[in-house]
Write a structure and sequence with these properties.
There is one protein chain. With 459 residues, this protein is an alpha/beta fold. It has 2 domains: 9-231, MutS, DNA mismatch repair protein, Chain A, domain 3, CATH 1.10.1420; 237-457, P-loop containing nucleotide triphosphate hydrolases (Rossmann fold, 3-Layer(aba) Sandwich), CATH 3.40.50.300. It contains 17 helices and 12 strands. It has helices spanning 9-14, 35-39, 45-56, 62-77, 87-97, 112-116, 120-148, 164-172, 175-183, 190-203, 205-231, 283-299, 332-349, 366-380, 396-404, 438-444, 447-458, and strands at 237-239, 246-251, 262-266, 272-277, 307-311, 315-319, 353-357, 387-391, 408-413, 415-418, 421-424, 429-430. The strands form 3 sheets. It has a 6-stranded mixed β-sheet with strand order 6-7-8-4-9-12, sandwiched between helices. Strands 1-5-2-3 form a 4-stranded mixed β-sheet. Strands 10-11 form a two-stranded antiparallel ribbon.
Length: 459
Amino acid sequence: MNMRFITDQQTLEDLQIFGRHGGGAAYGGGSGGSVYALFNRTCTRGGAQILEELFRYPLADEQAINRRSGVIRELAHGRAVFPFSSELFDVAEQYLADTDERTKLATEDRTLGERLSGVIGADNTFKAIHKGVAAVMEIIGVAKEFADSGLGAGVGSADGFGELERVMQTLMGGELGKMLGQAGGQKLSYARVAELDVLIRFRQRKLILELLRQIYYLDVYLAVGKVAMERGYYFAKALPAGDHSVTLEGVYHPLLTNAVANTLRITPEGNVLFLTGANMAGKSTFMKSLGIAVFLAHMGFPVPAAAMEFAVLDGMYTTINLPDNLGMGASHFYAEVLRLKKVAQELGRSGRLFIMFDELFRGTNVKDAYEATIAITAAFATRKESIFVISTHIVEAGEVLREQRDNIRFVFLPTRMRGLLPEYTYTIETGITDDRHGMVIINNEDIPGILRRGSAIKR
């Protein structure tokens, strides 16, 4: 099995991978406020479930990532479309789920009238089996045409399953394939349905289910490729893990309208990004953009960027929207401490992680936040095989860190003042900023005036 990219629920929620309520395997969706929904153009329920699996278990293997990416890219550029009727799969799945030997049809070559002799229950059983057999046969026929076209090459090969072509060759080369070839387009007799039912539902069931799974992968790959072509996403290139670098050109947040793109290169010589900027300058959005791109890239999926290369990492942990754990009586600061402890433990277990903390130590006083920011960031900087992005308002800590560590890179999101109105570029620049415009915004909204006027009225 391929190595898996580790992460946790906090990170999935921070990056809006499945949305607020954890997502779900509905198919044929839209953006829906989650990255999963953005890519979910699947035509089948099984495809939606496979897509969810891929999101829950990204890859940490360079070859597997590039292989999956290559298959999706080829299908996308070939403009292939899903060639199956979606309804067939619900019928086939329900039919194959019944493995009760007692439901087999008698294989004697009798007419339907002789077989049923007016028994309504038997008639319904035959109709259900006939419908299931017909659905599976149609799926196999369409799959054979698709595989013969050469477009199915490699489908599923990055995911621990055989290629669609290989499954079809095995299927068509066996007893079932010979019978299907003999049947042609003829109407199925009772005897032929009984024979096919035994082969499909009992003797070849495992292979048929593998075929369905391969088709669900095809559904996913075609859906993802369609999104890539429509939105102009880029198929990132995975590099060997030892490179310890990430290069992103024009990366942006995929769920925002008119999102601003940024370009960034992270290397071991500057593997810690110390990010500053005023409130509303876009720090959280920038961090989410990075996180989503790195996450999608490890899935072998196209990324919202103009270009991307990345050294494969072992996993990702983010802390952007950390909730207070009131049930444990934990303050926000203690929740931050517990999160840091978890990250430290994971760094001890895994060599290469992507770590992001937004507004580190916002839950404590300025003095403690200053001292803790310096201590933790400096400690992170000793782990050059991992990547860290730390945003903070404690800009004074940056000057100290600049003297202590040479692999910390300082970037900021600027604010331009037009009179008393702040304007945000959302484009990163090199350096540290001490922009603070909280009181400007408060005064612009006339909050002190509203409070004064309210007080005067009460008198």
